[in-house]
Amino acid sequence: MSNPQMVMYDEEFKQINAVIEKLLREANSKVIFLVDKNGQLITGVGETERFDTTSLASLTAGNIAATGGLAKLIGEKEFSILFHEGEKDNLHISIVGGRVILVVLFDNRSSLGLVRLRVKKASEELTTIFARLMQKAEEKEKSGDTDFPFAEITDDDIDNLFS
Amino acid sequence: MSFINYASREINCKIVYYGPGLCGKTTNLQFVYQKTAPEAKGKMISLATETERTLFFDFLPLALGEIRGFKTRFHLYTVPGQVFYDASRKLILKGVDGVVFVADSQEERMDANIESIENLRINLSEQGYDLDKIPYVIQYNKRDLPNVVSIEELRKELNPTNIPDFEACATTGEGVFETLKAVAKLILIDLKKGK
Ligand SMILES: Nc1nc2c(ncn2[C@@H]2O[C@H](COP(=O)(O)OP(=O)(O)OP(=O)(O)O)[C@@H](O)[C@H]2O)c(=O)[nH]1
Ligand SMILES: [Mg+2]
């Protein structure tokens, strides 16, 4: 396939969660998600159990994809920040490192200005971690040192999924 | 492309149902949704027009079980089949792991099938995918209707490379799971090869 495999390892997972936990506190927000541009949830912190996270991830990615399409039509590369204002809750959506979507949900205990400011700082840290993650995945793939769980699956394993 | 999370021990794959307008893509997902145990599925999301035509996509997340200790999830998407929604179709194909082409078996939809498969090939290649290299199956839907084209004819026109194909009636569910299983299997075999 043309794109590198998206992977996540324990070490980076912990670092990423630490960054968004901090962002959650510093931005006074309610919940924060990281979503892959293809619509897969990477992680979430805060009041995540109140939300259907899988649906949220898919719709966020659809939203970014659609606005990205709009951006191209008017000659922009992409809109790197989207803001949706509700009666109580607001969504701040931004693209991190070109490939990951950061979603911050906040209410009137915070403000757009504060969220913006804190997101900017967190984004830089996240970009570094994701760059490292990609590099690590590539190196592992090159050296053939993947603890890839599927190398030894059998037809039976696959059939059992559907039984 | 699939997403392997070693931290949470999950693997996610994306399957896209493609095909001409009204061929039965949404109906496929609805049937899968109805027949899947509550604990194995998430909410089905349909972004549709007031007349129930798909406007952007349908989305159905399935968590079928575990392979080698990894939770294996499939995210099913449909594209809007109407010709003028091409920009949306391109977006939905991003990161696809496997494609189901749903053909409408009715005689008068033959041209639409052919056009849609060509459109699929072009849109995939714009993203750097080759239809002949990715996990891909065909479903000949609406076999219950009287004015259908024969399977031989459908194969000749739509499946020259002889990929796995299935007859179906999505409204009753015939052939729906067979189709899904086949593409899921191809995706897992691809993963096994470490692609
Ligand atoms: N008789 C019959 N009708 C079917 C079958 N599958 C789908 N239909 C009907 O065909 C119509 C269109 O089905 P959809 O599933 O909405 O079609 P779609 O491919 O999602 O269409 P778009 O969203 O416009 O791309 C509906 O009225 C379905 O009930 C089938 O196997 N047999
Ligand atoms: Mg539809």
How would you describe this protein?
Chain A is α+β, with helices and mostly antiparallel strands and 163 residues long. Chain A has a single domain (10-161), classed as Dynein light chain 2a, cytoplasmic (Beta-Lactamase, 2-Layer Sandwich). Chain A is built from 4 helices and 6 strands. Chain A has helices spanning 10-26, 53-73, 112-143, 155-161; strands at 6-8, 31-36, 41-46, 81-85, 90-96, 100-106. In chain A, helix 1 packs antiparallel against helix 3. The longest helix of chain A is centred in the last third of the chain and has 32 residues, at 112-143. Chain A is globular and about 50 Å long. The model of chain A has no long low-confidence stretch (mean pLDDT 89). Chain B has a single domain (3-194), classed as Rossmann fold (3-Layer(aba) Sandwich), CATH 3.40.50.300. In chain B, strands 1, 2, 3, 4, 5, 6, 7 and 8 form an 8-stranded mixed β-sheet that branches. The complex binds guanosine-5'-triphosphate and magnesium ion. Magnesium ion (MG) is lined by residues 25-26, 54, 78 of chain B. The site of magnesium ion has 4 residues of chain B, from helix 1.
Strand segment tally of chain B: 8
Quaternary organization: heterodimer
- Major beta sheet summary of chain B: 8 strands, mixed
The largest contact between protein chains, plus residue counts on each side, is: A-B, 42 and 49 residues
Order of helices and strands of chain A: EHEEHEEEHH
Distance between the termini of chain A: 29 Å
Order of helices and strands of chain B: EEHEEEHEHEHEH
Please give the number of β-strands of chain A: 6
What's the structural blueprint in terms of helices and strands?
The complex is a heterodimer of chains A (163) and B (195).
Chain A: E1 6-8, H1 10-26, E2 31-36, E3 41-46, H2 53-73, E4 81-85, E5 90-96, E6 100-106, H3 112-143, H4 155-161
Antiparallel strand pairs in A: 2-3, 2-6, 4-5, 5-6
Helix pairs in contact in A: 1-3
Chain B: E1 3-5, E2 10-18, H1 25-35, E3 45-48, E4 54-67, E5 70-78, H2 86-93, E6 98-104, H3 110-126, E7 136-141, H4 151-158, E8 165-167, H5 176-192
Parallel strand pairs in B: 2-5, 2-6, 6-7, 7-8
Antiparallel strand pairs in B: 1-2, 3-4, 4-5
The complex binds guanosine-5'-triphosphate and magnesium ion.
